[in-house]
Amino acid sequence: MDERVKLELFDNPRPERDYVITIRCPEFTSVCPRTGQPDFGEIVIEYCPDKLCIELKSLKFYMQSYRNKGIFYEALTNDILDDLSGVCKPRWMKVTSRFTPRGGITTEVVAEYKTDK
């Protein structure tokens, strides 16, 4: 994770209950590390919080930190999952990245985190 971007958290208001939070980032951008061209897509974050939830304004700034970063879809999807699950320690989390067509090909990458609880 970029050290300049701090993800903020808040206490889960219902830690005794399993429920799912879905966050959609439909205007996600990064840069293709091979061509330097922008990549456009949607990132969907789904998670069952344990003790902490992700604060959305800080998440927005975190997502924007990828705007000028050259990174492959597979790496960024897994990096986002690692960063988010690492700070909020959810019971379960899934990150799905869906990118707009490039050369007639679309790409979707799904990465999942599970606890052993």
Task: Briefly characterize the structure.
The protein has 117 residues and is α+β, with helices and mostly antiparallel strands. Helix content is 21%, strand content 42%.
Protein topology:
Elements: E1 9-11, E2 21-31, E3 38-48, E4 52-54, H1 56-64, H2 73-88, E5 92-102, E6 105-114
Antiparallel strand pairs: 1-4, 2-3, 3-5, 5-6
User: Structural class of the secondary structure composition?
Assistant: alpha+beta
| Individual helix count | 2
Strand percentage: 35-45%
Order of helices and strands: EEEEHHEE
Largest sheet: 4 strands, antiparallel
- The portion of residues assigned to helices is 10-25%
Using only CA atoms, what is the Rg?
Answer: 15 Å
What is the total tally of β strands? Answer: 6
Low-confidence stretches: none
Give a verbal description of the structure.
The chain has 117 residues and is α+β, with helices and mostly antiparallel strands. It is 21% helix and 42% strand. It has 2 helices and 6 strands; from the N terminus they run ββββααββ. It has helices at residues 56-64, 73-88, and strands at 9-11, 21-31, 38-48, 52-54, 92-102, 105-114.
Keywords:
single chain; 117 residues; alpha+beta; 4-stranded antiparallel beta sheet; 2 helices; 42% strand; elongated
